[in-house]
Amino acid sequence: MPAFGEMWPRWRIASPIAGIRGTLCYGPNRGRKFTYICPHRHLLGFQPMDGHTALNQVVKHYLYAYGPATSQQFAKWLNAPPKWVAKLFSLMADELQEFDVDGDTAWVHNQSLKRRVL
């Protein structure tokens, strides 16, 4: 595949699609190099999540690491449309705790809040 005045291998085109379909994920690093693995062969009992569950998990883990955070901050981190993320946060309202941070509405996932308190 021609790219930036040189040739890139064809797997560079296929790897994002394979990742989305759950047939490829990052493997263990080898020094400064990264590797890919097939999750079905290397992670015993691997079952891909449905899209809704996977999105909820991404939000949950993001808010655990970076919360309280606004939906705009999450949208920027995920490189997703802010309106779509705002809708996602509203659909997850029963799982999120709202906070006022300097006049902005920020969120924490309820389970993250319980873990930090305990």
TrEMBL record:
<dbReference type="Pfam" id="PF06224">
    <property type="entry name" value="AlkZ-like"/>
</dbReference>
<protein>
    <submittedName>
        <fullName>Uncharacterized protein</fullName>
    </submittedName>
</protein>
<dbReference type="InterPro" id="IPR009351">
    <property type="entry name" value="AlkZ-like"/>
</dbReference>
